[in-house]
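ARCHIVE CARD
Drawer: 12
Card no.: 0347
Subject: one protein chain, sequence and derived structure
Cross-reference: see card 0346
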Amino acid sequence: MIQRLHDHLLACLGIDECEIIVVDGGSTDGTKELLAHLDVQVFHSAITSRAVQMNLGAKHATKDVLWFVHADTLPPTTFISDIRDGLSKGYKRGGYSFKFESDRLLLRLNSIMTRLNVFSFRGGDQTLYCERDRWDELEGYDEDFVIMEEYDFMKRAGAAGYPHLLMKGDVLVSARKYIHNSYLKVQWVNLQAMRMFHKGVPSEEIKTFYRAHLRQSKAP
């Protein structure tokens, strides 16, 4: 996945203006060895947590704009101009809609729903850009969140008066979650997790619920 994303990003126009940072959370699948041969900055987190890892990457970033991308996704090749356009319009943060790497009808419906700029239809898979100053002001991701950290950040950003820009284009997202789980089961679990989040249930409990009800599949 890392190799695919790396090659995809290098093919994007203007990528030389960016710095690519990868934060590894203790992988044991050969990712560390692969990263040693890629032209990226690599940092290793002692804690396996997306919030912790992304904060670590942001800490070492030197640019005025941060952009967070999950390793198993492929963003639009126009991301640099898309982000610049959003910033020029006054949007301090934003992301894309997504589509699954699958032609299944119900998954295509999910993709269509993410084209609505609604809080519940957002997520980390869709990438997130944020001005550095705004990121520092909001103190980044709350590391107490072991799941749904992006929703907590977006909630705080919205409350601070920074609306979310839904950029044109789709991030290509793996459909592996649906390999071992039915479509309805995944939607039910996602709905319950969102309800728990809004009720203020500790993220550890949400993560436990999530893992107890969905079979997890590893990225190839």
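Annotation on reverse: The first strand starts at residue 21 and ends at 24. Residues 7 and 206 are 35 Å apart (CA to CA).
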